[in-house]
Design a protein that fits this description.
By secondary structure, the protein is of the alpha/beta class. The protein is built from 6 helices and 4 strands. A 4-stranded mixed sheet has the order 1-2-4-3, with helices on both faces.
Length: 172
């Protein structure tokens, strides 16, 4: 069973159901990968999402990636994707796939630049982060294209337009 634990901290507005948005984005991403069975696995499969500010994301980015600047999304996987087959077959306990952290000011700025809602951009970043937790990356053009295609499919199921249609750089 898939569970998405979401913490939306100020400055993220409390008027939106961020937990529902996050749950939908994670489920959409998972559905379009070979790891879709994890959603119905016997153990509780959990992803933690923290919606915070640029200062916290900058500190995490500095401490874990050696980059002293904020970024839109960070992903911290807990498992190697090669272990997912074994994890889906286990019938006890909980499996924390990892953590995804979004920076409000950066997300808001990027959404404004693209003329989209913060909610749609956050959903895209959560899909992107989920794919990173599942072992996808964009280190080269072929893997980047494959990851973008998965993101586009997942976002389409959420009613969100292809973020790459105008070929602007998005999540890093």
């Amino acid at each position: 069973m898939l569970h998405v634990e979401t913490a939306a901290l100020p400055p993220w507005p409390g008027t939106r159901d961020w937990a529902a948005l996050a749950q939908g984005a994670v489920a959409a991403a998972l559905t379009h990968t070979p790891h879709a069975p994890l959603a119905d696995a016997a153990p509780l499969v959990e992803i933690s999402i923290r919606l915070t500010d640029d200062a916290e994301v900058q500190a995490l980015n500095r401490d874990y990636r050696g980059m002293d600047k904020p970024t839109n999304v960070l992903s911290f996987p807990q498992y190697d994707p090669d272990d997912f087959v074994m994890l889906a077959d286990t019938d006890d306990g909980e499996l924390l796939l990892g953590d995804i952290v979004l920076a409000h000011e950066t997300c808001t700025h990027e959404a404004g630049e693209r003329g989209i809602s913060v909610a749609d951009h956050a959903a895209h970043l959560i899909v992107h982060g989920t794919l990173h937790l599942l072992g996808y990356d964009h280190r080269d053009d072929a893997r980047g294209d494959a990851m973008e295609a998965l993101e586009t499919k997942a976002l389409a199921t959420l009613g969100i337009a292809d973020p790459y249609a105008d070929h602007q750089a998005l999540p890093d």
